[in-house]
Design brief:
Layout (H helix, E strand, L loop, with lengths): L13 H22 L12 H10 L7 E4 L10 E4 L2 H24 L7 H24 L5 H16 L6 H22 L6 H30 L4 H5 L3 H21 L6 H22 L25 H13 L2 H4 L3 E2 L6 E2 L9 H4 L21
Antiparallel strand pairs: 1-2, 3-4
Length: 376
Amino acid sequence: MFGIIRPCRHRLDESLAAAWWAHLCGLCLALRDDHGQVARTATNYDGLVISVLVEAQQESSAKARRKAGPCPLRGMRGTEIANGEGARLAAVVSLVLASAKISDHVADRDGIFAARPVAGVARTLTARWAQRAGRTGADLGFDTAVLLDAVHRQPELEAAAGLGSSVLAVTEPTETATGAAFAHTAVIAGRPHNMRPLREAGRLFGRIVHLLDAVEDLEEDRANGAWNPLLATGIDLAEARRLCDDAVLGVRLALKEADFTDQRLVHALLAHELEQAVRRIFAQADPQAPERPDSPNKHEAPETKGKQRGLIMGCGVAALAFFTCQTCCASEYHDPWTGERKEGWCHRNDCCGDCGCNGCEQCCCQSCCDGCSCDC
């Protein structure tokens, strides 16, 4: 599961944590209901923000919830999940952007996508996802053409980028796509006056996502000779950090102009967790950090890999790991294809080892205890 907004369980109070899970599960099941079981793999942490924004603008009586049955990711427990047009819009956006991410891997011949049979299947799958997302988007009054146009313009802009050119020219398609998605939440919620500030918040959110993705991939792309917007335009991490920090502030200011009925979860995710994501990813990318992959700490155990497998065997092992809950409940397991160590999904939302919140006392705004009381 991908995405930059991964709330630490100690920074959300019980009600906000439950709401966050409701939107995550709602997105997953909306993908299944509208687009099939395989589409659930497009579930991501950032996509659920769309569902959160819709609900935050609705009156309490309009907020849709339904019961969901047992799921391995919830320890086989049932729960209430977000339902309705907000979850469906989040599914549409997630599906289109996931298809774009897969297409990018195919174009770069990353990992298993370097194999022609896999690349062919991936192209067919992404085309089908885009078509289905378009139909659902039309039902919601959302034209997915703006998302697809952004995807199709990206390679051209990347090819035109060079040393000294603006990295923001490269992030523009992502900004446009996320801005359109954020703005449409106001339409669905019946608050058209929120479209302008939410479009701006979405635009800046897209900029942050694109830049952080580039920062995360920087060393790997450098080693593999793959295209990366930071390398292509020649900007350093300090400048990328400045752009992200400015965008985080811009998101906060834009949200202040929007009209919400309950902004607590929106504020937690798009004010505090977004800022935390920037801190976390740049800290991991710090060239001086001792835990860099190319400079491992001498006191740490060396990286160990499990067995590497081909496509068919890897798929079989992946299915076994999923249905035995290893991918969600195990603190650590090996990637079915590459053998690399992975962290179980359920263990990724406790970042206290990185954020230094010590379980509560030092959390930003102490939101794990009394709720956010800041004036931001």
